[in-house]
Amino acid sequence: MAPRSPDSQPVQLVFDFDSTVVAVEGLDELARIALADDPDRERTVEAIEAITRDGMSGAIGIDESLRRRLAMLTITRRHVDAVVRLLRRRLSPSFRRHVAAVRRNADRIHVVSSGFREYLEPVCRDLGIPPERVHCNEFRWKGGKVAGFDAASPLARPGGKARLVKSLKLPGRVVAVGDGITDAEIRDAGAAHEFVAYCENVEREAVVARADRVARSVDEVLWLYRLPGSPSFPKSRMAALLCENIHPEAAQALRDEGYRVEALSDALGEEELARAIKGVSILGIRSKTRLTARVLQEADRLLAVGCFCIGTDQVDLPASAARGVAVFNAPYSNTRSVVELAVGEIVMLMRRVPDSSRLLHDGGWRKSAAGCTEVRGKVLGIVGYGHIGSQLSILAEAMGMQVVYHDLEERLALGNARKCRSLTELLGRSDAVSLHVDGRASNRGLIGERELRKMRPGAVLLNLSRGHVVDLDALASSIRAGHVGGAAIDVFPEEPLSNRDPFDCPLRGLPNVILSPHVGGSTAEAQQAIGEFVAARLVDFVNTGGTSGSVNLPQISAPPVPRSHRFLHLHRNQPGVLAAVNAVFARRKINILGQALRTDDSTGYLVTDVDRRYAADVVDELKAVPGTVRLRVLY
Ligand SMILES: NC(=O)c1ccc[n+]([C@@H]2O[C@H](COP(=O)([O-])OP(=O)(O)OC[C@H]3O[C@@H](n4cnc5c(N)ncnc54)[C@H](O)[C@@H]3O)[C@@H](O)[C@H]2O)c1
User: N or C: less crowded end of the chain, CB within 10 Å?
Assistant: First the structure.
């Protein structure tokens, strides 16, 4: 539960500007712009930043800090306009995300800064904070240039912020919010009741040590005082733990959303994870971290798990669902990588490159066109026309191949591809056969001795799908007999568990055979795509409750509905839950704007949007509906 203002008086927030409302120091940025053409620019900027730091830490007074910095600069109106444009772009991320909530509270917000009105006022106006609530210094202009500042202003003197806030005689509970010592001094001088150290952009130990509270986003500040528009729980208090060297893109995407992210390079063992998972809302893992029922027992805040890989065997999916934890993966983010390898291998096999490469490595030389063909005009037979098969179809056609395909499902032909009525027809027509079927049990041994015999003499076979799909002994015999003309195999019925383990298979040493260690999808781009895809699913689930792509909860895509409250009700799939939930809304005369329900064998997921007004005890009543697993309220 969010803390209430202790004496429930109306709260007045006194915000600092630099490194708080905006992510940078306004005057430093202005200096950078004004010095753009100065050959000594870097040195002067460094000197100015050092003075800013001395001012922030209290080593020198604000008057001296301002005087010394301005003396080093020639500032014109053009420079000021440029810094306003820059500051608008560099608004602190949480202010950008919560403009509406800040505007809603603008009548209780003052901005007090030793920066200058010329650039503060336009940025504050964007946030709905009018000029009379912006208290700051002003430049003195002469001949179109800044000639100094109003040295008589209290904000240009030591202790000025505290004196100014006192002079405002604000009613109610006054809270100073900022990242510097001068903001803490407002409270110390008795001008504010409390000081919140604002650490979204800068965290100064000495400042945090003097704070009554710490906040890392503006929504967290609003939440601390239960102000209108504040979230039910701010993201800056939500922890995301990423294990196993997940692509940095994912950590960045979560940080951009405001989460506190810890990224580890290794997997955690069960006990380590059981300890680390306490307080974590989002967990990211790859294939080595096992998320067991035992670990889940310790997961007191866990909302969602991202498997930044294809498989999800490492997660106890039913136990996760039973606790209302959504699990996501990235089944299709490496499609393109597999397709590219297949394309390359078709060309290599049709030119018999594996043989000539081996010969040259062994110190031989044989220049010959025998058995080598172009791929142009040849027939490629694709078995399994899903994500990978259909994309391969497009690339192969672009190289001038004629594509035929076979799929158990009705799949639309892309480009000039032709559907085959049966696998037998496909095998009889193709110069290259590429397998892209899924891992269902019935696909075990899909290509055995009988099927290989039906292939055209000299045709080549590719398997980048699942190891058990091809009978490798039969394939080896066919190649030895000179029927199948070559093969590229990336997946095997038994694969070594680690890079230290040995590898064996019947195809070793055979002519025109490419063997690769299950790397069809292993590229830098695929890793990045996986990072982006899974992070986006996690963010969507936390922000909107959307479960599309979840592997353990019923899938609902739920774009936010403006001016509504959203209830996410996860329950056991049993009769009467929907009626009981809606009876709560009906009793309370709460208007339902939209509702979606999906169920699977064990779980039901109900997303309900209602108009804004509801009493807090509705939440308790919904939680008490029999069968409820988890209730979450958004916005
Ligand atoms: N080598 C690698 O590193 C790597 C990387 C990614 C995916 N894969 C594997 O590639 C395969 C294809 O992946 P995808 O993303 O295209 O899957 P997908 O589910 O999109 O497509 C599979 C298609 O195969 C069809 N199919 C299944 N059995 C069939 C059969 N007996 N005959 C004809 N059609 C059949 C399905 O109807 C479906 O259209 C999967 O087995 C996947 O595990 C391998």
Answer: N
- Whether residue 110 lies in the annotated active site: no
For residues 258 and 281, is the Cβ–Cβ distance under 8 A? no
Catalytic one among 453, 495, 587, 613? 495
Going by C-alpha positions, the residue among 478, 431, 481, 424 that lies closest to residue 451 is 424
619, β-bridge pairs: none
466 catalytically annotated: yes
Torsion of CA 318, 321, 322, 323, to 10 degrees: 130
What lines the ligand 1 site, CB under 6 Å? 332, 334-335, 338, 383-389, 406-409, 411, 436-440, 443, 446, 464-466, 490-491, 518, 520-521
Say which DSSP state 192 is in. -
Residue 152 CB coordination number (10 Å): 7
Binning pLDDT at 50, 70 and 90, where does residue 140 land?
very high
Cα–Cα distance measured from residue 619 to residue 635, given in angstroms and rounded to the nearest whole number: 13
Q: Which of 466, 537, 571, 632 is catalytic?
A: 466
Distance 438 CA to ligand 1 centre (A): 3
Phi-psi region of 197 (alpha: psi -120 to 50; beta: other; left: phi over 0): beta
Query: What is the pLDDT, as a whole number, of residue 612?
Result: 66
Q: What is the band of 8 on the pLDDT scale with cuts at 50, 70, 90?
A: low
Catalytic residue among 518, 572, 588, 598: 518
Measured by CA distance, the residue closest to atom 11 of ligand 1 is: 465
Which pLDDT score, from 0 to 100, does residue 236 have? Answer: 85
Q: Which of 17, 5, 144 lies closest to 76 in space, CA to CA? A: 144
Give the model confidence (pLDDT) of 590-613 as tens digits. Answer: 999 999 999 999 999 999 999 867
The secondary structure of 471-487 as a DSSP string is -HHHHHHHHHTT-S-EE
- 72: burial class by Cβ within 10 Å (0-12, 13-18, 19+)? middle
Question: Is 89 annotated in the active site?
Answer: no
